[in-house]
Every structure is written in structure tokens, then in C-alpha cells.
Amino acid sequence: MPAIRTGAKPDENTRQLTLTGELASVTPLPSSSKSRSKKSSSDRVYTDAIFAIKPHFINLIVKREKNHEYRKYELRDTVTRIWLYEVAPTSAISHVMVTSRPKIPGEVCDSNGIGNDDFDNGMKDSKFGYPVLHLYKLKTPLRPEVMKKTYGVPTPQGYMYATKKMVDELPLEDMEKLF
Q1: 147 and 153 in contact (C-beta within 8 Å)?
Q2: Contact 84/51 with Cβ under 8 angstroms?
Q3: Vertex 87 angle, CA 145 and 58, to 5°
Q4: For residue 58, is it within any domain?
Q5: The domain that contains 74 carries what CATH number?
Q6: Other Cβ atoms within 10 Å of 88 Cβ, number
Q7: Measuring CA to CA, how many Å separate 40 from each of 4, 36, 76, 151?
Q8: Most exposed among 43, 88, 167, 179, judged by the fewest C-beta atoms under 10 Å?
């Protein structure tokens, strides 16, 4: 049964006692203790997202056999680039795709890309298709240690938004444009 306050709210000078009646030592928690462990939203750039993706699917995108990346979630409207983090065994950000607003089932209308017809017919769990308009390859793949230490980006599990430092220090102009 939860505790019920029976009197007025105690003032800030009230002292907490132990069950034996002794003065308890209480250390107040910092007011922003949770926010210190996470990057503040001001460090994030909402034009660039990071997706975790299997190496097999990156290979299909590179070969232009897959021209949309399908996800269950919708990113912010401001996203124009998606950094592709290849999961194990690669474990690195290797490519950046330029995209536009996501398509919903029935809007892709392109049988040439792997998975497009299934998506259009509502046969996928995914509800959003991000078109691959251009693809860039990083000169040196970004390994998790460098992502975390240099750019403040933890290993992606699904998606996240990139940090300003990462976007500023790794411009597309310094990458190899594949298409």
C-alpha cells in the first residue's frame, strides 16, 4: 500500500529520521542527473540520421539492386542524409545515403528495387520507405570506438540522429560518390 501524506507538505528545513529516531544522512540527487548521461538534443543534427543495417543490404544498395531502405518508424521531416552503420561483422559506418521524405505503401511504384513491390502491397512490417537518391562511401569506415570517443555517438541499435561534430568534420565532399 503506498504511503499517504496525512499533513501539510514539509518545508525544506524538515529533517528525515531513521526508524530508531536518529538523524538520517540524506544526499540530494543533482536535478539533472539523468540528462548528464545522454547527449543533449542541442548536440544533435536533425538533417542526418544513423541507421543500423546488415552488410548484405548495404551491398544491394551499392549494386543499385535496392533503392529504398524500409523502416517501421518515420524520421523527422528535416532528414536528408542517412549514415549507414553496418552491423557485425563489419561494425562501422561505411556509407551515407542522400534521401528525401519517406514513402508509404503504394507510393514507391518501382518494381526494379528489391522489396519495393512487397512494400507497396503492404506485405512488409515497415511503413516508411526512404529512397536512396545518392550514395557516398567514407574513405575510412567509422568504428564504434572512434564514433564514441571523437563524435559522441554510441553504437546504433536502431536509429539515432548524428552529432553536429560528426556532420561538420565528415562532409560528403570528402567521401567517394558512388552514384
Answers
A1: yes
A2: yes
A3: 120
A4: yes
A5: 2.30.130.30
A6: 7
A7: 36, 8, 17, 13
A8: 88
- DSSP-assigned states of every residue in 1-20: ------SPPP-TT---B-TT
Residue at 157 is within a domain: yes
> What DSSP string describes 75-100?
--TT--EEEEEETTTT-EEEEEEE--
Contact 66, 113 (CB under 8 A): yes
Domain presence at residue 18 = no
Contact call for residues 40 and 89 (beta carbons, < 8 A): no
Structural domains of the chain, count: 1
Q: Are 82 and 51 in contact (CB under 8 A)?
A: yes
Residue 178 in grid coordinates = 558512388
What are 110-152's pLDDT values in tens digits? 999 999 999 999 999 999 999 999 999 999 999 999 999 999 9
| pLDDT of 31 | 47
Range of the domain at 159: 43-164
> Whole-prediction pTM value?
0.77
Q: What is the dihedral of CA 143, 148, 154, 159, to 10 degrees?
A: -70
Q: Confirm if 35 and 155 have CB atoms less than 8 A apart.
A: no
Q: Which three cell numbers stand for residue 134?
A: 545518392
**Is the per-residue pLDDT at 20 higher than 80?**
no
